[in-house]
Every structure is written in structure tokens, then in C-alpha cells.
Amino acid sequence: MDTREDQNISKDHEKKTLKCADQAEILRSYQRDIDFISQLQEKLSNLLHDLKNYRTLSRYLISDIPARWIYFVFTSGMGNQTLGEEYTGIVQANLKNYSVPSLNARIISMILEYFGERTLLKGLDVLQRYVNDPCNQLTEQSVKLFNWILTTLQSIIPLLILIHKGFFYISGRYYSLGKRLTKIDYAKVYGSSSMDKVSWGLRLLGIITLMQTVLRIWQNESQQKNNEELIKLTETDVHKNCQLCTEAISTTATPCGHTFCWPCISNWLRNKPQCPFCRENVPPQRIVYLMNL
């Protein structure tokens, strides 16, 4: 792998020749990196089979995060191109300043890209469980306000990711939100450029992605109306006991109209996103907390 320092020439000449990589090249680069990470993850798993504490250590390789960390350390972390970047002839760069991104910027970008969305959503879920815990000392109005804020954030974050992806397909700038926040882009330094037809196809995909976002926003609004109707239909069942534990009062309803206590139904849906009774598909974010309205 070549270092960026070996690939970059003098700053004055760089300003004349540095150009943004197109969408197809960036996507091909990421796909090649993902393929190599998958192979690395498989090799790590095979290596663990030879160790005595295989079962204890194997749980850490359920996700590809360890393999991604190792890959990052020996590529971008050391100032080298990744295999995908080398294959497509692109390098990470700050196109505005005509400079190589700092190590801190590359690390922050990697953390945001690998952990940002999932960690944020998981944190919001933990906060919502705390807010709806009957043992906390929050007032009814506070519970209502916090539930509205947390539910709104849980629906907005995936939409922001989708909107950003649409703009990337259209403009070719900043593959992820982490790279946008750290001002890390991609520059084309060698090799032939992608066909213009491919770029236009991706721009069309970006427009479709933005249209999909608008459709999801409309669906969320429709779901909110359905939730309000569901609340009216289930008001008479609110004070009944939970149908799972049969002890706690039912405070939460599924879109199909069944009511449970919050801890029971949230724990159930994390393991299996289906109503315990009618087996209708129920994503965790679609359950409605009734006692705070």
C-alpha cells in the first residue's frame, strides 16, 4: 500500500490537479474494503477456534467491528490507502484546504461511521426505558414531553442518514455523515475516471432516495394519526394487567391493539419484533405508551 505522502506532490501543483472522486469510484472502493473486512473477520473467527477460550472470545466477533478496527489501524490509521482506495485510485483528502486529513479527523470519522447511528439509537432507547420506568420520579407531564422528544429523535435520525445518502448520490461529496462532519472527502489521483453514464445513474438514484425520504415522512405522519386512533380504542383497557406478566398495569399498546406493560413488550420486541398474541409484525418504534397522554 502506498502512503499518501508518496502520492501527493507539491501543494501548488496539487491545487491545479486535485479533483473530487466520483460516486461510482467511492462506492467501488467501499465495496472492496467491505469484502476484505469480511475475509479478515472470517480469518479471525477461524483463528479463535484454535484457542481454549473460543466460546468466550467468539461473542466479540459476532459483529465486524473488531475486523474494521484492525483494518483501519493498518490502513487509514497509519496514513495508507485502503485496498479499495488503491484499487480505484482515490485518496482521502480535504478538498477545500488541499490537504491530507489529520489522524484525529480520520479517527473521529471512523468512530462516527462505525458507531454513530447505532450508538445514538441505542442510547435513546435506554433513555426512553428510564423515562417510562414506573419507579422514576418524573411527573406525568415530564414523561409525556420526554417520550415525544425521544420518539421524534428516533424517527428523525434514520431520515437524516437517508437524506445524506441521497445528496451523496447526487453530488458525490462526503460518503458518510462522519466524513462530512470531519471534512474528509475523496480525491482522484490516478487511473481512468468512471463512465459518465454510471454517474448519471447514481444521481437518479439520489433523487429517488430523497423521494423515498419524503414518503417515509408522510408515512410517519399517518402512523401518528393511527396511534391517536389506537389510543382512543384502547383507553378502556389501559388499567388492565399486562397480558405477559399479568402483574403490572398495561401502559403500552401495539399497532394491532393489544396492551402490555412497557418493560414486557419492549423486551419482547427486542428479541422478536412480533405481537406476542396475534404475531403481527411490530417494530419496536411503533409501540405507543398510553399512560403519558
Automatic annotation (TrEMBL):
Similarity section: Belongs to the pex2/pex10/pex12 family.
Q: Which UniProt keywords apply?
A: Membrane, Metal-binding, Peroxisome, Peroxisome biogenesis, Protein transport, Transferase, Transmembrane, Transmembrane helix, Transport, Ubl conjugation pathway, Zinc, Zinc-finger
User: Which pathway does the record list?
Assistant: Protein modification; protein ubiquitination
The cross-references to Pfam families, in alphabetical order and at most eight, read: Pex2_Pex12 (PF04757), zf-C3HC4_2 (PF13923)
Q: Which PROSITE patterns match?
A: ZF_RING_1 (PS00518), ZF_RING_2 (PS50089)
Q: Where is the RING-type domain?
A: 242-279
Q: What is this protein called?
A: RING-type E3 ubiquitin transferase
Print the organism lineage: Eukaryota, Metazoa, Ecdysozoa, Arthropoda, Hexapoda
Q: How does it sit in the membrane?
A: Multi-pass membrane protein
Q: Say which domain of life the source belongs to.
A: Eukaryota
Q: Which SMART domains does this chain map to?
A: RING
InterPro entries, alphabetically?
A: PEX2/10, Pex_N, Znf_RING, Znf_RING/FYVE/PHD, Znf_RING_CS
Which GO molecular function annotations are given, in alphabetical order?
Answer: ubiquitin protein ligase activity; zinc ion binding
Its EC number is 2.3.2.27
Quick one: where is this thing mainly located?
A: membrane
> Which Gene Ontology cellular-component terms appear in the entry?
peroxisomal membrane
Give the UniProt record's GO annotations in the biological process aspect.
Answer: protein import into peroxisome matrix
The protein's location, in the record's own words, is: Peroxisome membrane
Task: Return the PANTHER family for the record.
Answer: PEROXISOME ASSEMBLY PROTEIN 10 (PTHR23350), PEROXISOME BIOGENESIS FACTOR 10 (PTHR23350:SF0)
Catalytic activity reads: S-ubiquitinyl-[E2 ubiquitin-conjugating enzyme]-L-cysteine + [acceptor protein]-L-lysine = [E2 ubiquitin-conjugating enzyme]-L-cysteine + N(6)-ubiquitinyl-[acceptor protein]-L-lysine
Q: Which organism is it from?
A: Vespula pensylvanica
